[in-house]
Amino acid sequence: MAKRIIYSDKAPMPIGPYSQAVLVNDTLYVSGQIALEIAGKGDISAETHAILQNIGHILKAAGLNYSHVVKSSIFLKDMNDFGKVNEAYGTYFSENPPARETVQVARLPKDVNVEISVVAVK
User: Fold this and answer.
1) Residue 55 in contact with residue 116, Cβ under 8 Å?
2) Which PANTHER family match (predicted)?
């Protein structure tokens, strides 16, 4: 198994003992991303865009882009934000969007409002 740690200095550093992403053969596993720098300011759309931009930086560091994403997971603090998150998310995945689940959770790291992880394939 060929395993390589992927890191982008344009995305936030991990806040724990994990990697931003791991590339195994042709599959990239991107850890859950949060928008710590703007979380809690009441703008779920801005948080979502910041997260997806960070994911874009990580994808680019692996030589990939949004079109390579095959699966995403969205974790929301409040399911009432689903529409706004979905609208922002859709601007990054307008054609042939990846498989996805969106769930409400009791709490997220650093008390952010949304966290997103993705899996991409070359």
Assistant:
1) yes
2) 2-IMINOBUTANOATE/2-IMINOPROPANOATE DEAMINASE RIDA (PTHR11803), PROTEIN HMF1-RELATED (PTHR11803:SF58)
Note down the domain range covering 102. 3-121
pLDDT tens, residue order, the chain (122 aa): 789 999 999 999 998 999 999 999 999 999 999 998 887 677 999 999 999 999 999 999 999 999 999 999 999 999 999 999 999 999 999 899 999 999 999 999 999 999 999 999 99
- Give the strand pairing for 99-104 and 69-76: parallel
Domain with residue 14: its CATH number is 3.30.1330.40
Distance of CA 98 to the CA centre of its chain: 13
Sign of CA dihedral 67, 72, 75, 79: positive
Contact of 16 with 36, CB cutoff 8 Å: no
Please count the CA atoms within 13 angstroms of the CA of 42 that sit on its side-chain side: 0
| Cβ-count burial 26-62 (b if 16+ within 10 Å, e if not) | eebebbbbbbbebbeeeebbebbbbbbebbbbbbebb
Instruction: Please give the single-letter amino acid code of residue 117.
Output: S
